[in-house]
Amino acid sequence: MSPTSPRQPGTPLPANGTAASAVAADTKPAVPKTVRGFAVASLVANIAIVVTGGAVRLTASGLGCPEWPLCTPDSLTTTPEMGVHGIIEFGNRLLTFVLAAVAFAMVFSVWKIRAQRRDLFRLSIALLAGIPAQALLGGITVWTGLNPWIVGGHFILSMVLIVLATVLVNRAWLSPQQLTTANGPLATRTLRPLLGALGVLSALSVLLGVVVTGSGPHAGDHGAARNGLDPDLITRLHVVPVYLLVFTLIVTLYLVYRHATDGRLRSSLLLLTAVVLLQAVIGYTQHFMHLPIVLVGLHMLGASLLTGAAAHVVFTGFARRVPGTDPAPAQTGTPVSRMP
């Protein structure tokens, strides 16, 4: 075959710059850079709103605006008489509009390609729909005087949105090749139950952490009720799925490094390991230091990062199309299976 003749199907690419160019072209994301940028912004914004919401609770500003949707019965905004607590609570409410702007921008960025990328369009719509749901749930927390179970539900909904945003980021980085090929899940049959367990145990750890918070001293307002559970007992229950998560993570890492496994799966597991270790250190430190607000805030950030990292591991292990460098079909000319 001459250098200028077209490559026949199934013919290996030459080991030169042409092959490298073809591989690079295949591994470039299939969507515009703006779509990928807004996908990342969606994830960052949903994590940031958790941190700012935590600041509201930890500074006892949860009822800084005692009404909803107005701040007071007669004012949409905070008043000087409400002091710093009113400013903090109203500032958090204003950040909801920033989150909404990012969500609308995400929807608009995929609008032209919505027929080709229905997955991205549906995820962006789900994230947008989560904003009024969060706002309404936030209003209910004010109406109920910061009921700890409603506050916990408010936090859990944020975790769901972080999972959706993590999947959105992953899918936004798929290359044209990965969109048209199905190589099967990266995780083997042995690893898949372990990855599923990592996801479930991460979720249980976060859920029980919410219950622990509802029994602790940081109620969001000095007069707000607690859930009435024994904080020490709930904390002991909370660490059970954490210990199981660490054990499962160790076993999974051993199997992944013991056998030849795709680097993308190893990288996602290492990221989860780093987050789990950091979260464990913060959790134990805050417990023995009697819950200083700075460490509690960092622990809430850690819960958000844990949720995203666990979702990333599950996506990477189970998805039939996974972002990352996968040049084997382009280099070898091996026929690739098509999605039905």
Structure write-up:
By secondary structure, the protein is mostly helical. Helix content is 68%, strand content 0%. Mean pLDDT is 85; it is low at 1-25 and 327-340.
Name its key features.
340 residues; mainly alpha; 11 helices
Short description:
With 340 residues, the chain is an all-alpha fold.
| Biggest beta-sheet profile | none
Number of strands: 0
Oligomeric organization of the protein chains? single chain
- Helix content estimate: 55-70%
Helices, by number, come to 11
Would you identify the regions where 5 or more consecutive residues have pLDDT less than 50?
Answer: 1-25, 327-340
What is the arithmetic mean of pLDDT?
85
> How would you describe the shape?
flat
From N to C, what is the helix and strand string? HHHHHHHHHHH
- The percentage of residues in β strands lies in under 5%
What's the N-to-C terminus distance? 33 Å
Estimated radius of gyration: 23 Å
Structural class by sheet pairing and helices = mainly alpha
Fold topology:
Layout: H1 17-27, H2 33-58, H3 83-111, H4 118-143, H5 148-172, H6 176-180, H7 191-215, H8 231-258, H9 263-288, H10 293-318, H11 328-332
Helix pairs in contact: 2-3, 2-5, 2-10, 3-4, 4-5, 5-7, 5-10, 7-8, 7-10, 8-9, 9-10
